[in-house]
Amino acid sequence: MLSDSEKRQLDEQGYLVLPDLMGPALLAEVRARVEELFAKEGEKAGAEFKQEPGARRLANLVDKGEVFERVILTPRVLEAMAHVLGKEFKLSSLNVRAANPHGDCAQPLHADSGALADERGYWVCNSVWMLDDFTEENGATRMIPGSHRWRRLPPPDCYDPQPGEQLVTGKAGTVVVMNAHMWHGASANRTGRPRRAMHVYYTRWDKPQQQYQKALVREEVQRRLSPEARRLLALDDAANDEVSSRLSGMSGFMK
Ligand SMILES: O=C(O)CCC(=O)C(=O)O
Q1: 186 lines ligand 1 (CB under 6 A)
Q2: How far apart (Å, rounded) are the C-alpha atoms in residues 254 and 75?
Q3: What would the pLDDT profile of 79-126 be if each residue is shown by its tens digit?
């Protein structure tokens, strides 16, 4: 499914834009559920994982709607994940981040989980699902192409423009697969409307999950999952129980 040029883009630039991957029906369904959850969770939204000034967040979404159980199994995204992480990988977390209107919500450049590639290679890969158009004004994600190959982290609190940086814009429904070792960060939303993104984040099989799914996803949800979904959440993997539960502690969330 991924063409050679798409694979090359992912290898060399560190990200791949998949326009209209969601389709109108899925986009509408995800948006509706996200808004329901924001209304239901109110000020607590995102608190299980993290809250961020200038942005609203949701966390632990596999547990919070059947639509998300489908999202994590999107074949094209899984294929891109396998290209970056190798055949053996699992879901690390599923969150939403909505940059507030007129917010001072630019993020410093970072690699997700502060992760550096190790002797086996890359171990974190994210996908940014645009639930609104991403524009130059509303907080599109800033990326530093090629930085995943440098094997170092950006300097702390780095908001300054960098040589070669790209602002990744696109229409709602676009999904950007991103080698999460690549330096990136959301830019500020200078418009009057929120900019919503869903982050479907995966990690290599031997690494801990950012959100330990076995502890966080309720039994009734776990029971209805397909074998493929169970495997992707590492629900039946003793090694994952060891590494993810130890690092995420009682809450199930590794901050
Ligand atoms: O929402 C975005 O544009 C990127 C967010 C991000 O990189 C993060 O929250 O770690």
Answers
A1: yes
A2: 27
A3: 999 999 999 999 999 999 999 999 878 999 999 999 999 999 999 999
Question: What's the CA-to-centroid distance between 108 and ligand 1, angstroms?
Answer: 10
Helix, strand, or coil (residue 95): strand
**Nearest-10 Cα torsion for 250, 35, 185, 171:** 140
Q: What is the distance in A from the centroid of ligand 1 to the CA of 141?
A: 7
Is the CB–ligand 1 distance for residue 141 below 6 Å?
Answer: yes
Whether the CB-CB separation of 204 and 117 falls below 8 Å is answered with: no
Please give the structure tokens belonging to residue 178. 């991103």
* Torsion angle of C-alpha atoms 164, 167, 168, 172, degrees rounded to 10: -170
CATH, residue 148: 2.60.120.620
- The pLDDT tens digits for 214-238 are 999 999 999 999 999 999 999 999 9
pTM over 0.85: yes
How far is ligand 1, taken at its centre, from the CA of residue 224, in Å? Answer: 30
Q: How far apart are CA 109 and CA 159, in angstroms?
A: 7
Ligand 1 atom at minimum distance from 134 CA: 3
What element of type H or E holds 84? helix 75-85
Q: Say if CB 6 and CB 77 are below 8 A apart.
A: no
The reply to whether 10 falls in a domain is: yes
Question: Residue 178: inside a domain, yes or no?
Answer: yes
Residue 123 lies in a domain: yes
Return d(Cα 122, Cα 79) in angstroms, integer. Answer: 15
Number of structural domains (the chain) is: 1
On whether residue 254 sits in a domain, the answer given is: no
